[in-house]
Fold this protein.
Amino acid sequence: MKKTVYILIVIALIVTLSYFFYDRSHRQAKAPAISDDQQGTQTVGDNSQSPVAADATASSTPIQSGTSDGTPSAPADYAPSKSTYDFGTETEISPDIQVWEVAYDGSGFVPDILDIRIGDIVIFQNQSSKAFRPVADNVAAYPAFDAGKSIGAGEKFQMQFLKAGAWGYHDQLNLAAKGTVNVTE
């Protein structure tokens, strides 16, 4: 009788461990499918959540962080959904997706023209003391490209571009501040 109980315990342990290792080895990080009407990701946070360098100037090259082989990783608070304001959610993204930064300095965007590929993420970082609200020049053509609210000092707006095109944008609170994101396949 004791021998049977020990055998059942060992079998249960083997099945449990096998499931754990099988499940863990077969998980793959996949970017969720986003329909045409859900294209864009928006995130607002403070500087303590910032996934990019604390450099005062914007970068016109992708921000490479998190991996030893030089491939970009997702910002710490990337969350793929339309008009979502989230703090601290961590999600894996594809290695060919790059993360770019555009700084708002109170009078304009730096760089004001950015060339990226479909799927890349642009973080609009507010490095001024004034609030701003980035929005597409033609909101009807790309409704997801709208922060939806003012982005305060030190906060950010994050957008994943899933449509090809030349997307002009401006600051809804300072119409003189303009920029363009050129998205290619």
Remarks:
- The first helix runs from residue 2 to 25.
- Confidence is low (pLDDT under 50) at residues 27-90.
- The chain has one domain: 38-185.
- The longest strand covers residues 174-184.
